[in-house]
Amino acid sequence: MDFGRLITAMITPFNSDLQIDWEGFETVFDYLIDEQESDSLVICGTTGESPTLTEEEKLQLFEAAVKRAKGRCRIIAGTGSNDTAHSIHLSQAAEKLGVDALLLVAPYYNRPSQEGLYQHFKAVAESVSIPVILYNVPSRSSVNISAETTIRLSQIPNIVATKDCTGTDQLTQIVSGAAEGFLVYTGDDSAGLPALSVGAHGIVSVASHVVGKQMKQMIEAYLGGDVKQAAKLHGQLLPVFGGLFTFPSPAPVKAALSLKGLPAGGVRLPLVEANEAERKFIASLFE
Predict the structure, then answer these.
(1) Closest Cα to residue 38, out of 48, 28, 47, 25?
(2) Cβ neighbours of 52 (radius 10 Å)
(3) Residue 163 annotated as catalytic
(4) Catalytic annotation, pick one of 163, 185, 222, 254
(5) Given 31, 109, 122, 135, which residue is catalytic?
């Protein structure tokens, strides 16, 4: 399955009561495909505030995304957790709703061993028939899916890709050793161009909510052999990449979308919305 080069980890728009804004969801969904040129969308990832969404809300969002996509993009459902049994349950439910693939985060807080990680992902992957993408984000999960474990997992037929937020050294190891056809994505916007240079396939992005079109141009310039132009675009985008993570995500990108007149809404506790000074800073990134 081709997920494309630019995947957006989509926010979940909320109304003034911090309930899902379903009309806003459709507006942002279409905007990400039509204007920001996303090839695939992750629904209910960390950027979608998965920790504070109920299971019922997640299933409703998966269903809504599948219906809205109409073949225009791939829908990747965030169904991972630190409970293997619950990950299996949610993954199977998402598959029944017609999502194209699953994104499974490394189990957080309970900090399993590398063998535990392998067995967790293996169990979830074998419980479904659709493709699985690993999600390695040690800064949030407190555990690293090592290159060796990722390479081992790449041998499982429906584990087809990884979103890895570590440095280019680990990405290089995975690219070099993984099964044929296994795709490596960086989950760090700032590392997008460096990751491509060591063989990554693309980027799973937050910044693509607001600079996706420019990111696509950067990717296409690099793939077309115009490294100088790609580097120029990367340099221009770097302040945005960093700026959208100056306070806890997704509050910054929701502020950026709101400033563009898009229906992002607030964030659920324990996250808090951008204050006035933070909103001014976010606005300055686009001046």
Answers:
(1) 28
(2) 14
(3) yes
(4) 163
(5) 135
pLDDT digits 0-9 by tens, 54-106: 999 999 999 999 999 999 999 999 999 999 999 999 999 999 999 999 999 99
- Helices 208-223, 22-34: axis angle to 10 degrees equals 20
Active site (annotated) includes residue 213: no
Q: Which residues of the chain are under the pLDDT cut of 70?
A: none
